[in-house]
Amino acid sequence: MSSVGRWSEENGDFLLVVSGTTRYAPYLTGWQEFKDHLRKVVKEQPGWADVYSSQGERRGEMQGWCRLRDREDADAAYRVYYRSKGMLVHLWETGRRNEGYRLMRCNCSTHFPEVQEGQHSHGRCGIDIGRVHQLGGKAPASTIPYTTAQYKHPYAIYPQTQTYAPIPVYPVYVIPSPVYSTSTNGMPVNVRGGAVLTEARGIFIRNLSYKCTPEDLNGLLMRTVGYPIDSQLQRDARTGAFKGVATAKFASKEAAQHAASLLNGREHLGMKLHVRMDTDTTVVGRAEPIVVNGSYRY
Question: Mind telling me which residue stretches traverse the membrane in this protein (predicted)?
């Protein structure tokens, strides 16, 4: 890889930007949801994260931005989101000594037909890399180029000479911590802030061959329904023996439903699989309490 000026390999981290609609990527509804989703993918704790509206031709979509410290985590996150339906994914390597940003890889060519494979489309992706320099405090009054390893030429230079008014100071209010209870139908309820919205995003697989390995299971999923966020073979707690059942979790409810429908009744390693939606759910948001007669009703 190359960039303008000297690059400090050992002093860098990584910037991941994913763009898509909340219909297929509900984790892009807010920064907390995006960061919680990333925690299921990476091993180390993600750095700062935020969610913005896309600009230009991709207006109406949302962008999730996050810093990752580990190269292996960055590569794993790129693979997961690259394989998610309709997602535009970019991965930058960053410098901590104001060298700027350099693009490692993106999938612009799969979204924009006129872009050659492996190339980046600055004009159509709707991503403003200058925003990160402002948020991260890097070189606020300079121009910072970034390049890709494949083509070794700058795609864009972002001048950042705009000045901003002082940030107003507001009184600080302490937000009470949520207190959860359980409704009669088993749904978790935040008695201070409304109901927690959940949905099933996993599948439960029975009648697997006892010879099935984690590699066999992942190979089956990759060949049929795509890359899962997580997959687990269920083993006996006492003996450690495989019980012939497994679970797999996907990025959305729709992906899990598609997987259950496609895999149920399919033959694998000589066994006919029985697949259904898993009962475990994933928190996807929060509903405000209903106001009745001027008071909150839970």
Answer: none
